[in-house]
Design brief:
- By secondary structure, the protein is of the alpha+beta class.
- The protein has one domain (4-99): Ribosomal Protein S5, domain 2, CATH 3.30.230.
- Helices cover 36% and strands 23% of the residues.
- The protein contains four helices and five strands; from the N terminus they run ββββααβαα.
- It has a five-stranded mixed beta sheet.
- A hairpin with a 2-residue loop joins strand 3 (26-28) and strand 4.
- The longest helix has 19 residues, at 70-88.
Length: 128
């Protein structure tokens, strides 16, 4: 099988994912994904699409992550893996879509407005 590549995004994070046949090794920025993310919850988020399809030990995944925070990167990687699995076999899409992994979460941080301390917060009002 030729390497399949896909992109996943979440907030400010971008994940470039390369999917190959293999034994289930996931490498993120040159390190093992469990070492990179540390948290059990984030490692679970990354492997969700593989567990839904029961292909944990069928593919090797190499990912380059940049931007955003650790949670945004984990969710960007999940989307990238999902898209790569759909490219590998179109029949995977139905099961992944039911779990909500195919849709990109487009929510991002609202910009700061001029004359305010944050996006919506206002300075304290003083009557006198």
């Amino acid at each position: 099988m030729e390497a399949i590549n896909a992109i996943g995004r979440r907030k400010a994070a971008v994940a470039r994912v390369y999917l190959n046949d293999g034994k289930g090794k996931i490498t993120v920025n040159g390190r093992d994904y469990k070492e990179y993310f540390g948290s059990e919850i984030l490692t679970y988020v990354v492997t969700q699409p593989l567990e839904v399809l029961a292909v944990m030990d069928k593919f090797d995944i190499v990912a380059n992550l940049e931007g955003g925070g650790i949670k945004g990167q984990a969710e960007a990687l999940r989307l990238g893996i999902t898209r790569a699995l759909v490219i590998a076999d179109e029949e995977n899409k139905k099961a992944l879509k039911q779990k909500g992994f195919v849709t990109r979460d487009s929510r991002t941080v609202e910009r700061k407005k001029p004359g305010r301390p944050k996006a919506r917060k206002r300075f304290q009002f003083s009557k006198r």
